Amino acid sequence: MTVRVFCPHADCGQRYRVDETQLGASTVCKRCGREFTVSASAAPASAA
Ligand SMILES: [Zn+2]
User: Fold this and answer.
1) CA of residue 48 to ligand 1 center, whole Å
2) pLDDT tens over the chain, length 48 residues
3) How many Å lie between the centroid of ligand 1 and the Cα of residue 39?
4) What residues flank ion ligand 1 with Cβ within 5 A?
5) What is the SS3 assignment for 39?
């Protein structure tokens, strides 16, 4: 199944859908170009 993840950089927050097998892997955000770790709980810093 796919999971929703977010770029963790507060000024980006690009959303992606990735296969759950990608959880824990590092990827490069297509929007901001910075690396982040794929995590189902990742969300922009503004999230409560
Ligand atoms: Zn980003």
Assistant:
1) 19
2) 898 899 999 999 999 999 999 999 999 999 999 999 998 764 555 544
3) 13
4) 7, 9, 12, 14, 29, 31-32
5) coil
